[in-house]
Amino acid sequence: MKTFGDLTAVDGVSLTISAGETFGLLGPNGAGKTTAISMICGLLRPDEGSVTVAGEPITTTSTRGRSAIGLVPQDLAIYPDLTGEENLKFFGRLYGMTGAPLASRVGEVLDLVGLAERKDDHSKEYSGGMKRRLNIGIGLLHKPQLLVLDEPTVGVDPQSRNAILESVENLSTEGMAVLYTTHYMEEAERLCDRVAIIDEGTVQAEGTRRELVSLVGEKDRVAISGTGNLVDATEALRRIPGVTDASSSDQRIDVLATDASAILPELLASVSSSGGSITGVEVEEPNLEAVFLHLTGKALRD
Predict the structure, then answer these.
(1) Contact present, 253 and 271 (Cβ < 8 Å)
(2) What distance in Å separates the CA atoms of residue 179 and residue 31, rounded to the nearest whole number?
(3) Which CATH class, in words, describes the domain spanning 219-285?
(4) What gap in Å lies between CA 78 and CA 24, rounded to an integer?
């Protein structure tokens, strides 16, 4: 918990992130995300509760626990008059890295964030996306067990944004736990194994996309285009476990199902065996945007 005067910024937030997992923290502006991150990283003392990373307690004065964290802040933390390589070496020394291990790790990070060919250029000459990638590289230098990424794609072009997302996707394969905040719902859909939706300082819901969708009763939608006996085919579809509704109109059957991808072969086989001839199929799965609006009554960027 964290309060500022009469304002309760964070209230009872409890998160567990496993190694190799990318965990999304979503919430509208003023929801408490920044305050929660500040406490997780030891930058702000909670009024109640505790934070543990890699078995070590995190406080505003601890060093061992915080050394397991890599923080990539929303505001760029790089030196414009240093080259990309010099920035990494400078911050590496702050982490206590020296000599050959530092040089080797700098090279690895430059490759990982796609800046090896621009390592000798001053960072003030970088594009916005390149600066963001350098910012991420600094957070990765000491191989943290928890990497905290606070809206790392804000203000970058689509190409650079995709490069950043690809870099993040590779992190979980290295066994690193990643805490990711974003104002772009599609990023959470793409990157995050689990998501917590926070609003007014409280976690409203937490889980995988499928688990969150099930909380608000959203169903998958399947549109089957075809010819032939679609009326009998529709009646047959209603009897399939997992189908909650099916209706037919001119050359089309609309199906609501709890997990369409799992039963799609059975759906198509049933239509064919009932006298229908399939000409097209579209599957629309409910997304996190619908869940977010349902739980908070707000758009993510509000």
Answers:
(1) yes
(2) 16
(3) alpha beta
(4) 25
